[in-house]
Amino acid sequence: MRACFSKHVRLLKPDEFSRVFKNPVRSSDRYLTVLAVARDEVKIENSDFGSRLGLAISKKNAKRAVDRNRIKRLIRESFRQNQQNLPAIDLVIMAKPGTKSAKNQQIFQSLEQHWNKLAKNFKNQDV
Question: Is residue 126 assigned to a domain?
């Protein structure tokens, strides 16, 4: 399977983000908060039922664009590498204030723990 970050694996529309914010399963640590909801195949016109990612990295938590872009790049890369292990869920990831000063490896480890926790959680729910 080709690991990429094309349009069909992104949350693009405001209503897609709203759906995730409404009633999510949360996973949180000192760097990131990950919100996830199971994909509803009936409501989504996309025929691919893999996981999709949305990013909400605010200026409040990372003032400089270079910091926000680094965080987003790391999240996208980790998602790209792990998306085949995730069930059909929609994710929104939000950065906390300490994320901008974290080393890349710390962010990758944090994301790895979130992916494992969510995969296990949604596997138990039989998504």
Answer: no
